[in-house]
Queue: 4 jobs
Job 1
Amino acid sequence: MPGGRLTQSERQQIATGLADGLAYAEIARRLDRPTSTITREVMRNGGPTGYRADLAHRATQQRTHRRKQAAPQGSQALPQPYGRDAEAVRDYQESLTTVFMTSGLPKMMARVLGCLYTTDTGSLTASELAQRLAVSPASISKAITFLEGLELVRRESGERRRERYVVDDDLWYQSMLRSARANDEFIEAARQGAVILGRDTPAATRLENAARFLDFVSEALIRAAEQGREVLYTRTETAPDDTATPRSDLA
């Protein structure tokens, strides 16, 4: 499988594939590239409807140039713990950012979340985020406000009264509950609509069926989240015989 940066010719083939309505996986297969590479390339350069090969190639060259200029002060100069490959960590962070973008997050918010997730502490200050992402503090502040509204990050008081922005193990549990609660509004609206449109009419039946389906899914989701919450707090310990033993941090 070829590595390295995408060439201008490959970007033109991506643009052609998108115009032909091909899936990312099919474009990747034709280029002998990972699907994640194609997904990241498209999402960071206008999305499937706005992707332009020449603009994408120029933007990549500009990003590479900025990275080289900022390397002494930017995230590239930061030492990596545990003997990690700094380049591999950076590429993974970009891939994770793309995953967050495809799930619906705007680019800057996805970058902040990706940065937080790839730190061992799971927390950074605004200045640390700005340095690592080479963006302004104002951009970080806007992204954090957005992510807080979605309950994807939380604030903690740090040293010298500096706030730290945190992603923790409880994030996914809260996210599942929020997803379930988000269905409630539609369920209520659908049932109101069924009454207004007249019981047993096609439109009312459609709305009632949707409401019953989402109600069932929401209840199952909440039960599963409650039952599986302990998994988020399970650590793997090595026993004396070198076997892995799960341990829960929940009381």
Job 2
Amino acid sequence: MPLLTDPAAIAGLVAREIRTSSRDGAPTKIAVARRAYPTDQADLWDALTNVERIPRWFLPVSGDLSVGGHYQIEGNASGMVEQCEPPQRFAVTWEMGPQVSWLDVSLTTTDGGTLLELVHEAHVDPGLWTQFGPGAIGVGWDLALMGLGLHISTREEVDQAVAMTFPATPEGVEFIRASAVSWADAAIADGDDSASAHRAAEQTVGFYTVAPEESPES
């Protein structure tokens, strides 16, 4: 059974934006993703910050999630909690090896649910941006937001084995292509060349849709 019945439509639930900025005197790119969920603010906050619930849609998290504490996502990023204002906003550093970026998540009550806004700011290697564009990080967040949506709608735990193989399935390829193209369009709106942005999107699709046993090590 496919994980998604309409992958392009699910990808289309996310509004995407790219901004060019700077931090500490160096240029940055800011990826913004917004998606509404059909649940109240307290429930969505719990799904995002409860260490027992996070693995139901994402990955296990250990450490101290209070302000000033350090966290570790299993097999993924680590960092420090910089701000926490329940049930509205938290901000953390997002550290992968020597690379440090900054993640800010806010929740706003809307008619029929809660709007999640994810803002990820990073110093970007120009060569990597040319090769993959914003989809390199944006598609990863879209997959996480998809998993969160499945959990919120079903109240069930996302099967991690199915989630790991999803990108290489026909539905996964469709979802990732829709996501990557939308991130390319957001980069174009920020000033990137159209042809270059869409070439980078196709490179991103290729990177994400390789079967797990063939994926390059991160």
Job 3
Amino acid sequence: MTATVLTARALLLDMDGTLVNSDAVVERIWRRWSERHGLDGDEVMKVVHGRQGHASMAMLLPGRPVQQNLADNARMLAEETADMDGVVEVPGAAAFLASLDGLPHALVTSADVALSTARMAAAGLPLPAVRITAESVGASKPDPEGFLKGAAELGVAPEDCVVFEDSGAGIAAGRAAGMRVVGVGARAGVHGPDVVVADLTRVRVEAAADGSLRVRVG
């Protein structure tokens, strides 16, 4: 694979599937939810990655009241936060985050504060200083709000940011924000990121003299 080099001023990082492998928990929780609602678990799993839970529910159960989805989502988040069995880092995530120490970057996740804090800790990863969580936004990915807020908090123009994402919803959000997207993992490739890698062992970040970041992928 030929390496791709992207130049940026900040990196915006998704969590689940990008830094943290939480697939085991997500599968357990959502398949139980699917059974409760008489839905096909395989079809449900095609929808839920990258989105806030209530946004997934709105797609899967059209016509159900928003308040019911929000209440159901709160219960699901509590279940997920209590279940860290099988939560591990995506290969290379710890070294990748260590390489970003002191460089402009933010976590942009559809998880809430409690879940993101618990999962990063379970995976042995440090939390970036700047974090955009479910509480920070009014609209879930694939809406670009989270990534635009992350760029604004870092004081960097959207076009100068590179997003790291694994899901279709997240990649669409990054694109809608006018950002370049590095796809991470098997799910990412079919959703049209600018470049895709199997995991974060294939990514190197260096600070240039002018303050920009050189992101070597591949």
Job 4
Amino acid sequence: MAEIDGNWFHNQLDDRGQSLRALARHLGKDASAVSRTFSGKRKMTMEEAAEIASFLGVSVTEVMHHAGITREGEGLGPKILLSAVIGEDGEVRSLPEPQPLPQAVLDKAQLSIGAGRNRRIIAAQVRASTGALSIWDDAVLLFAPTDGIEPGAIGALSICCLSGGKQILAKLDRARKTGEARVVSPDGGIGEAVLTTATPVLVMIP
């Protein structure tokens, strides 16, 4: 692991007129624990990096860089970042910047997909207060990006990319190699569509 640049964090706090104690309160931790983190005696977690980024008003990527956290992640298995949200209409929308997942969700994800899996995994969170997807509100779905229509997507809840580039969450009823497919939307509606890719949801974490 690369060394943390503690001076950068202290300078960021000074520039904003904030104290280490104020940051510690934001994190729900003792100031001594935060001080140990910035001095390199304690490892910063991905969840802490996200909270610190929010407190400082900077990107998570910048905090990760100065904290010495690599994108390859901690421990075994693939690094999984929250890269998209799924709205009430079932459309999958990419986030401007991927965010780290809480450690509890990461642990469940690694158990579900297997620590030795080498494929890149994407996480998308359902954000639906109403409609058919509201029963899954806040759930995290994991899927692997693909270049085509995967056989495993047929008959399964899948992330489907339409020919126009729009991505949706739907059950793929049937699909031809040429892309013509019949999809069932979360509200039960059935429609014909032309797909460029389709990949099954690997697991849903409530």
